Amino acid sequence: MDLLRLEPMQLVQLIIPVETAHCSISYLGDLGLFQFKDLNSEKSPFQRTYATQIKRCGEMARKLRFFKEQMTKAGLSPYARSAMSDDVDLDNLEVKLGELEAELIEMNANNEKLQHSYNELIEYKLVVQKASVFFHSAQNHAAVKQREVEAHQSGEGSIDSPLLLEQEMVTDPSKQVKLGFVSGIIPREKSLAFERILFRATRGNVFLKQSAVEGPVTDPASGEKAEKNVFVIFYSGERVKNKIVKICEAFGANRYSFTEDLGKQFQIIAEVSGRIEELKTTIDVGLVHQINLLQTIACHFEQWSHLVKKEKSIYHTLNMLSIDVTRKCLVAEGWCPVFATNKIQNVLQQATVDSNSQIGTIFYVLQTKESPPTYFHTNKFTSAFQEIVDAYGIAKYQEANPGVFTIITFPFLFAVMFGDWGHGICLLLATSYFIIREKKFSSQELGDITEMIFGGRYVIMMMALFSIYTGLLYNEFFSVPFELFAPSAYGCRDPSCRDTTTAGLVKVRATYPFGVDPKWHGTRSELPFLNSMKMKMSILLGVAQMNLGIILSYFNAKFYGNELNIRLFGYLSLLIVVKWCTGSQADLYHVMIYLFLSPTDDLGENQLFFGQKFLQILLLLAALVSVPWMLFPKPFLLKKQHDERHRGQSYALLETNLDDSDGTELHHGSSSHEEFQFSEIFVHQLIHTIEFVLGAVSNTASYLRLWALSLAHSELSSVFYDKVLLLAWGFNNIIILIIGLIVFTCATVGVLLVMKTLSAFLHALRLHWVEFQGKFYEGEGYKFQPFSFASLDKEAE
Description:
Blueprint: E1 9-17, H1 18-31, E2 35-36, H2 51-73, H3 90-154, H4 163-169, E3 180-187, H5 191-201, E4 207-212, E5 217-218, E6 225-226, E7 228-235, H6 238-250, E8 254-255, H7 262-318, E9 322-323, E10 329-337, H8 341-354, E11 362-366, H9 382-392, H10 403-417, H11 421-436, H12 438-442, H13 448-455, H14 457-474, E12 490-492, E13 505-507, H15 526-555, H16 563-582, H17 588-597, H18 612-631, H19 633-646, H20 658-672, H21 678-702, H22 704-729, H23 734-772
Antiparallel strand pairs: 1-10, 1-11, 2-10, 3-7, 3-8, 4-7, 5-6, 9-10, 12-13
Subcellular location: Membrane
Protein name: V-type proton ATPase subunit a
Coiled coil: 90-117
């Protein structure tokens, strides 16, 4: 594995006999180390050779999606895919899928009809039961009235008896008006509007009786459950009946016929109940049969789905190949790593044997000037760091890969801004959960945020480990210092100096061996000391990383003139180190300012070493010379190269590949006669020069974010500890202490472990993309995407 310089690539031409083409592509897909080029890009998908086979695979994929929908409705899930059987053939699978689809469709249609009839019978039974109560109560009331009339007629007529009542009672029953009725069931939410429309449409010439049904009722048409009411509408006249029927249809009310005879009502209820039981039994048997069929499909679903996806991808790849004039061979071109040459030749030879072909595949390496794809051999640990670099841009072929350095520098710069070994342990515990259970999580569908965290679990692990390291350097555990490695080197002269100032501290033992002395925390000198230390450390780290980028720019033959960083800020870094080593009290701000304002003045007490003044003048002159050196030579060199091409001095030798030289000469010939725009080139270089000069300062100053975010993290942690936890502890009340612990935990997790983690991550990302990679990395390549079956299960259909 060469992560710094990508894998060497080669353009290969394959001449494959038609009879071995399918098997060869399949074996190459299993190998996953060959990226095919589309040799039929001018053709539409419908004009290609294997469009029919792709259409067949698409139809089989549609049937498999139908099966998956049916399994989801039945509460089933596909079983894990077992080893692919040798007897599974695409043609046989196509026939089998068709038969299963037809059987399932027929089952669904029958079940739908039976369920519709079952729901109608349920509603019919409810209507008969509720309406019979209406008629039974009405007939009882009529019988009571009839007995009263008969008793009145049997008595002697009185002068006080109403004449109209006597006339009404003696009227012939055959001449009385016969009322009709319509019965049915309607959703309860529509019953009020239904009643109003009936009243208005018939001008009040109907009598509506409703009764609520207990519990939801399944609607036969929609199959959805809803609260419903049974209704009976009494009317007089056919015109009114027609209006009632239309209103019922408009409101989605289901009408059911009904008889007034009580004996027939009980008979209907008994018959309907019997038919309901029969339908229920039939439906249950059909559902059991359907579940058994779906379970059978679920056993083979993943295997069938993988086979269909595999075949479809093979035919898509075959459509990228060109057919020779004899139509006996397919010609393929593509990229592969050089180390995979023997592997590819072996699988092609095996495909020839398995296809019983007498002619093998021809493997030929082509010479080309086309830029190859980029291929870095990564694993589960390095892939996340490579993704950070790829998000900025894919490396060009043979371009130095920043991912190698990102594995260390990215989590380290994050830790400089997040330095607290207590918070680092929390991050480590969180990411350890994902690492320990990575096999389980890798086989599950995760949410967007969870999947992002799981994918970067090793990045977070490195960030946590470096945070623990820098936290030990800063001697901060949730902002609390500890004497972990040795007692503090300082002690009080007397008890009055405790926790007030460092003025009363004296050095009583050897220097604290690792990190910041715990006595420096909580003193008046703490903030100035940490400010100075972290600011100077940020400059040192920034200059070191940018200089690494400058060195890599020479590695990539990309010269940006960033020597200003090496000369000026490298000199500043030297002064910082010398001051730390010698214990000098020199003012570095004064040294750097007067380096430009008065370079010839005497340094006085700010002199750190012999010859410093001469070195400063030399560096200043070199910096001044660098500006015209970046501006002037390049436009004149480009003009000279243009003139040489125009005179034909830059053409390739005749010994080169003739196939490539024709296109090359035509290209040079067409471009060499173009007029050279010297003014545009000069203005462009001027813009870049100004950018480089300003960037020499701004890029270095950008690393001061390490200092700012580190202090902000430390101060926030200190505020939460002092103003929340210690304040709650001082009340000597268990309830207040519990509340303080909850607030402290929520603030630590929400602000420091989530928001500050995200903030430090983004700032570290910015430093890598702009200040580091901007020095040498172009990122204008394209990724190596080989034809492989390994990613089929992860792709959406």
